[in-house]
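Onboarding guide, step 5: your first structure request.
Type a short instruction followed by the sequence, for example:

Predict the 3D structure of this protein.
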Amino acid sequence: MSSERTEEFSEQPVSRSRQVSDDGRDRETKSSDAPPDHATRQEATAAPGDAKSPPQEVSEAKARMRSRLPALDDDADVGVQKEQTVTRDGKADLAFTGALLAFAAPASAPTGHWQEYRIYQTNGGKYVFSKVTRTVFAKEHDTYGAEVFDPSPSSVPSQLLRSAREIARSRPLTWADAAVAFFGYDPLAKALYRKLSGRFEEHIN
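The system replies with structure tokens like these:
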């Protein structure tokens, strides 16, 4: 009887080791069945810095735009008088005759998103400020914002802004003030201002 028990105990470890080795072979087989470049393809299309997010499809046209940064499609139009159309979300697009005064875009967009700043001047003396937020991903949409500044005293918004500025700083509102109100002072905005003039700097004694 003791010999029978000994035989039972001696057989059990053998069956376990076989099961483990068989499972290991199964795992190896499954892993070898997957395409070798599958993970790399996912990694390339996933958003950088977020390993848990699912892979996102990249638009080839947007990828070409990103590869040309900081150059933009219309950078050759700076100073050229022509018919312009500035897109904006939630409002009518702006159509006018005028010139692109300056633009600014980042040198790269590693996260797949970037902004483009533009300032136009119309033939009537108004200024148009445009901010476009681009995305390289096919399922995401670009966003467009734009505002018009009319320096004429007859303009009601200009009068309201001008009176507030005069109270605060005792000088009339300029298009440069309006540009700062729209773009702010982030690094890209400062790069835009440097292309225009030194009037955006704060001079102190």
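Each response can be followed by summary notes, for example: Confidence is low (pLDDT under 50) at residues 1-47.
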